[in-house]
Amino acid sequence: MIFANRSEAGTILAAKLWKYREEDAVLMAIPRGGVPVAFEIAKSLGLPMELALIKKIGHPNNKEYAIGAASLTDYFIVPFEKVSQDYVTAEVQRIRKRLDEMRSKFMGGKEVKDIKGKTVIVVDDGIATGNTLMATLQVLRKGNPSKIVIAVPVASTNAVRKLKPETDELICISVPEEFYGVGAFYKDFDQVSDEEVIEYFRMLQSMPG
């Protein structure tokens, strides 16, 4: 399946998440690509949307390889040989500084919602490997939500196989046998700008109810 854009993908995904409209649920949009998708779900289901202020901790020898993740309040790490606690501490501090800047820029500095006892629906525009999202789930779990759901328009079979056991539910519209990257399944896959993210949150805040 090829989506016109992230907004169309979010509209289709919203229909598959309809049962969660009556739950004490919060949408966690992975920045930035997950924001337009989550916006359509928030608009349709009347659920609050937060930015998933969580970033991966990369291995010192390969920053793209996730060995953990950090939020503003928690972090998770897989112990590796030759990865010192000093390195982890420095990375967590660096990531939290960046996350605080993002919170200030995109959310006006408002406090991140407490997810304890809530259904957390993690939304992105697609999943290629699932490695970073796996670490993100570990950090979210530390907040003691009642349920964690992943909702994406498209994902690779490997990512679904890896992530499904780690969640209460994984909802994915399309799991193609041949996966060439998330962007291959969108007609319009332009990068989402900071200004657009800010505008999506502004539009949500101005909606009635």
Structural summary, described in words:
The protein is of the alpha/beta class. It has a domain at 6-52 and 113-206: Rossmann fold. Helix content is 37%, strand content 21%. The chain has six helices and eight strands, in the order H-E-H-E-E-E-E-H-E-H-E-H-E-H. The chain has helices spanning 6-16, 34-45, 85-107, 131-141, 157-163, 194-206, and strands spanning 25-29, 49-51, 55-59, 62-70, 75-77, 119-123, 147-154, 169-174. The strands form two sheets. It has a five-stranded parallel sheet, with helices on both faces. The chain has a three-stranded antiparallel sheet with strand order 3-4-5, sandwiched between helices. Strand 4 and strand 5 (75-77) form a beta hairpin. Helix 1 crosses helix 2 (34-45). The longest helix is centred in the middle third of the chain and has 23 residues, at 85-107.
Classify the secondary structure makeup into a structural class. Answer: alpha/beta
**Beta-strand content bin:** 15-25%
Query: Care to count the β-strands?
Result: 8
CATH class of the domain at 6-52 and 113-206: Alpha Beta
What is the CATH topology classification name of the domain at 6-52 and 113-206?
Answer: Rossmann fold
Helix content: 25-40%
Radius of gyration: 17 Å
Spatial separation of the terminal alpha carbons: 34 Å
Major sheet = 5 strands, parallel
Helix count, DSSP H or I runs of 4 or more residues: 6
Order of neighbouring strands in the sheet with most strands = 2-1-6-7-8
H/E series, N to C?
HEHEEEEHEHEHEH
The poorly predicted ranges are none
